User: Fold this.
Amino acid sequence: MRIVFKITGIALVLAFLTGAGSTFGQQLPQFSQYMFNGLHINPGYAGYKGEPYIQSTYRSQWINFPGAPETFTVTADFAANEGKMGFGFSLLSDNLGPTRTTSGLLTYAYRIQTGKKSWLGLGVSAGVSEYSIDGDLLDPNDFPDSEIPMGTINLFTPNLNTGLFFHNDRFYAGFSVFNMIGKKSLEREDVALAYHDFHYYLTAGYMFDLASNVRLKPSFLIREMKGSPINYDLNAMFLFYDRIWLGGSFRSNMKLGKNNLPENLNQRNAVAAIIEIFVTERLRLGYAYDHSLNVLSDYKNNSHELSVGFYMIPRKAIMNNQRWF
Assistant:
């Protein structure tokens, strides 16, 4: 069996039964709070906020499971030339059992004004990803196993993502493609090949006014990757007094066509409770709690996600042009 499938024990069970997050050999890491940081799923988002913004996110899945996924990111988002250009960078570290993925990306978006309050961002992010696997942490079925490495294997590959992001003051929609180059450099070791497959993201949302100080933002996200069922999120977030976001998500899968996967892999789902608070005009704190609704629900080992965002310019400076997404 190839190296990428040699993750044994509970980590392997988790990777194949859920897919609701960071899974080595499966999908790129996903975040419950992505709707507040579009750079996680679309480089065309860069520059949308119209001001310098830095965010860090930490996600820990299935607490207390040996080898459970942990993901840490730092992103930055900047705008220039009166909002016509966006810049950004992102750093990611994703761990699952004996495997680790580390990446660094620079992002550029050219933003075209399509109406009085509407813009279309055309973005690209480029950088490098490192995939590593520590053979000393693997538990082979038969010992010795010549296909399990001694020590750590490290492989590097270039990375390229592209995306479109349209928005006005009420509505947004985006489409992006990740991992467009670099897969061939991984083929000789079969490390993280599936992880580096093309990933497609389609998202949209709308802001409704419910009362003078209450707004509702429903949204959705659809993810697709070769060899996996299509994954989707349905989200509803309430905004109170322009300061507190409170809501949640439902995440599941749907099967289109023949993907030769067991039926239980096409019924993976979870719910998430999400809260985001502007502690000050510059500081934003977020927390998400994910609860699995599939076979893992009996284990009571759920997922936690924390985020900290910082606006370098106080939000009050742009209150006449709020950023809801």
